[in-house]
Amino acid sequence: MPERSFVFSRGLVASLTVIALPLALALWASFAGETFYVTLAARIAILGLAATGLNLALGLGGLVSLGHAAFFGIGGYVAGIVASHAVEGSSLVGLPAIGEMAYVWLLAVVAAGLYAVVMGAISLRTSGVAFIMITLAFAQMIFYLAIAWPGYGGEDGLPITVRNGFFGLRTMRPMPFFLISFGALLFGLALFAVLKASRFGAALQAARQNGVRLASLGVEPFRIRLVAFVISGMITALAGALYADLNRFVSPSMLSWHMSGELIVLVVLGGVGRLAGPLAGATLYVLLEHVLGGMTERWQFFLGLALLAVVLLGRGGLMSLLAPKGGRHG
Amino acid sequence: MSLALLVEQLLNGLQLGVMLFLMSAGLTLIFGVMGLINLAHGSFYMVGAFACAAVAAATGSFWAGLAASLAGAAAAGVLVEVAIVRRLYDRDHLDQVLATFALILIFSEGTRWLFGSFPLYLDIPPLLQGAARLPGGLQYPVYRLAVIGLGVAVALGLYLLISRTRLGMRIRAGENDREMIAALGVDIRRLNTIVFALGAALAGLAGATVGALQSVQVGMGDPVLILAFVVIVIGGIGSVRGALLGALLVGLVDTAGRFFLPRIAGLFVPPAEAGLVGSGIASMLIYVVMALILALRPKGLFASHA
Predict the structure, then answer these.
(1) CB of A134 within 8 Å of any CB in chain B?
(2) What are the pLDDT digits (tens) for B20-63?
(3) Is the dihedral of CA B19, B23, B26, B32 positive or negative?
(4) Do A264 and B94 touch (CB under 8 A)?
(5) Per CATH, which fold does A2-322 belong to?
(6) At what angle do helices B221-235 and B240-265 cross, to 10 degrees?
(7) From CA A211, how far away is CA A219, in angstroms rounded?
(8) What is the ipTM of this complex?
(9) E strand or H helix at A117, and its extent?
(10) Which chain B residues have a beta carbon less than 8 Å from that of A257?
(11) B chain contacts of residue A137, beta-carbon cutoff 8 Å
(12) Domain ranges in chain B?
């Protein structure tokens, strides 16, 4: 069908444009000597990656998690804790503390994955509102733990004096750090695309549409959802580790429920279930924050109004403006 | 440890419990009747506290402030329901979460715009100042006793409202089957607005009464909102009876944790850090209790049929 392929190519072009945007911004800023905008582009890429992780659970699986800040923050704290031990030269409960991003990411992803297994195993027994609230509660648990634990900054947060390294690259400079973040984003997007197109992705989307029917076909929705939830949390944790290195600071606010809410906002602003949706949402969000935040201290008031308008009037988010599709979910 | 100290902690737990009940009763009713998950419920708590503080400062009367908190929160509830929330009942949970999250941003920043970033303080009315002597020689603030009394009175009032009045009958019918009672000629839209305003007023009342104990500031509703969520999940979403039981359980567990855990932590870490560590772990305690209850009963203690 020629029409179908036209829509497909338009969607692809829109996705590629959205993905190329942060890279273009960073390259332009780098040549113009505006290093601030390189860092802004890195922030877009990292928040986009975090929301892409959530999109796997939320968009494909229909799992409205209000607890993804837990994974984001776990990633952030792993980066912060490893960096602080690496500076001191002390070991980390028997593990070596190496201030190397690849190592940090591995630890972050494993830690978040373990927490996601526990969180998912309990919360996925329920659905609907109960699921939303239980995921929220699990994130709050970690939030209070981070405040209570005196060794790593407690309520004040933990500064990272020197960014973790990446195979000898000078990560303290904006451009190399942006490229690392952008690479991680591309990895996350590729993983999302592969999973979405796979048999696993088909089963996950079937579980969202009709879990009973899927079960009658011999596929247990619980296990599919749990695997998706864990992978989703791991991707968000990877973004969290990068976010801590970006800010050279990690604090309990990364774990707060406002963070979870913002991640949902990013996904919905951009387009639920769409490949480049979360990144489009993150781009819009960061630019709004930058532009409105420059004009008024109360920019979140207007963000709230804009969000209400998106929910009440628009369906399908930014990506559906760029490349409309028939159904609500892509 | 003396008996008096134990009784004091018990009363503190009760006081937190009844305040949580005021918050969660509205939340659980709104969910039960309209199927709406309302993240902005904490905003009504804040609106109530600010209305009370502003009117009390202007008139010099706490009681006028208290009336204003009820009226202000109920008015905000009606406004929000008619303008926005009404459109969300038939949407999925994702849309509801997002729209009510947006409402939080609007309420919080709007309040900061009107009142500034500094906290306001609300004085305890003269009638309720000072401490009462309880049997056993314990001195306990009169105001906190009054708060417990208020909570018990509201719980009783809600029970009578729901079980004995025509409005209560409609609320119960609405929880069972919205379409059916609409078909039977009940104006479901008006019922929705009334239930939403009632929930908002209760939250506002809670905000005003707690405002006199703590400070009145933007964002004060957030921690209470999340505790109220824990309460209604433990109690069974949609059940007012479950909300009462869950609120008392959370109130007592949280207070006990805050009292005992810092002392237990003191055995393991230096005293300077023990308070922080203990109270942090105490904050986690109720979530652990919740996870345990849900692992055993995924629908909460009193699952409603709706």
Answers:
(1) yes
(2) 999 999 999 998 888 888 999 999 999 999 999 999 999 989 99
(3) negative
(4) yes
(5) ABC transporter involved in vitamin B12 uptake, BtuC (1.10.3470)
(6) 120
(7) 9
(8) 0.85
(9) helix A101-123
(10) 222, 226
(11) 226, 229-230, 233, 287, 290-291
(12) 10-219
